[in-house]
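During the no-cost extension, the postdoctoral fellow (Dr. R.K.) reprocessed legacy sequence entries with the updated structure-token encoder. One reprocessed record is reproduced below for audit purposes.
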Amino acid sequence: MASLFGFRPRGLGLSALETAAYYAARNGITTPPTVHRLPATAADDKTDIERADYRHVGRPPVTLYTIPAPRRAAASWVGPPAISSRQTPSANSSACPTRPQQNAVD
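Re-encoded structure tokens follow.
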């Protein structure tokens, strides 16, 4: 159950993938997304980024960028989380091309 600061439940939350699928369906797109793995922009960049594009001619597109979970992870307690995690120059949202906002089709 999702809530704001633990107060007043606001219903079930959706994952990023479910949210993108919701907006695609809302825009009248019924086909599954085309998923592409984006190339790293630096030789030492080990972060994978995937782009899922929901497209249909004449319908507003929906695009979702995700960073897939690591292939393996070890669960251990090492204390509180660090202030900053590993960063990647490939995921620079300010470098994305800007374009006019497209409204969803109601």
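The chain is about 10% helix and 20% strand. The helical segments are 16-26. The remaining legacy entries will be reprocessed before the final report is submitted.
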